[in-house]
Amino acid sequence: MNNKGNIVLIGFMGAGKTTVGRWISQNVNMKYIDTDDYIEAGQNMTIKDIFANYGEEFFRDLETKALEELCEGCSQTVISVGGGMPVRDINRKLMKKLGTVVYLKAAEEELARRLDGDDKRPMLAGQDLRKRIHELIMQREDAYLDASDVVINTMGMSMNGIYNAIEDYINDGGR
Ligand SMILES: Nc1ncnc2c1ncn2[C@@H]1O[C@H](COP(=O)(O)OP(=O)(O)O)[C@@H](O)[C@H]1O
Ligand SMILES: O=C(O)C1=C[C@@H](OP(=O)(O)O)[C@@H](O)[C@H](O)C1
Ligand SMILES: [Mg+2]
């Protein structure tokens, strides 16, 4: 594990970053921060309202600022980020500085099942869900791979199994 002992969870919307991050913090002695929660608390506004009032670029700037702040003070923390975080070069660098970056993957049809009916994710609003998921994954996959130290295909895995896979990677020397 890198010397700050942080784990950074990345991946597409619905991949389980927030769920896995929360599970780890509840079952292992690590703190937990979700950058979406961190941004919402800082702005006193939901992600949906931030997008509606100020647009995507403003939100992306807040994401970069959040990572910069977390790089200053975080240790022994699981950090789940938003699905778009790895798209900016600077964010990929900041995440590598922050900790071991884990890319959580799930099949597109499973993501669609999980995200169907969601109204909190502006990047998916008002479009054919399956098509939108596919299109965004195609745009983002290279950034996810470039950002990550390890990829975990979570299909059929329990929370415990996902955590064990992360721990195995770190214990095997990780990064
Ligand atoms: N491994 C999993 N198996 C089944 N459902 C899951 C799993 N991970 C997440 N979910 C469900 O998918 C939805 C999105 O999960 P979330 O953790 O918010 O994803 P992310 O933060 O990656 O967007 C939630 O309803 C959550 O309960
Ligand atoms: O993929 C994206 O661009 C986004 C993902 C969301 O987080 P989750 O991946 O946790 O849903 C949230 O940051 C915002 O709605 C934008
Ligand atoms: Mg999340």
Automatic annotation (TrEMBL):
Residue numbers binding substrate: 36, 60, 83, 140
EC number, as in UniProt: 2.7.1.71
Record keywords: Amino-acid biosynthesis, Aromatic amino acid biosynthesis, ATP-binding, Cytoplasm, Kinase, Magnesium, Metal-binding, Nucleotide-binding, Transferase
Residues that hold Mg(2+) according to the record: 18
Cofactor: how bound: Binds 1 Mg(2+) ion per subunit.
Pathway named in the protein's UniProt entry: Metabolic intermediate biosynthesis; chorismate biosynthesis; chorismate from D-erythrose 4-phosphate and phosphoenolpyruvate: step 5/7
InterPro entries: P-loop_NTPase (IPR027417), Shikimate/glucono_kinase (IPR031322), Shikimate_kinase/TSH1 (IPR000623)
Catalysis: reaction(s): shikimate + ATP = 3-phosphoshikimate + ADP + H(+)
Residues the record lists as binding ATP: 14-19, 121
Quaternary structure annotation from Swiss-Prot or TrEMBL: Monomer.
Family, similarity comment: Belongs to the shikimate kinase family.
Function summary: Catalyzes the specific phosphorylation of the 3-hydroxyl group of shikimic acid using ATP as a cosubstrate.
Protein name, entry field: Shikimate kinase
Source organism of the structure: [Bacteroides] pectinophilus ATCC 43243
Gene this protein is translated from: aroK
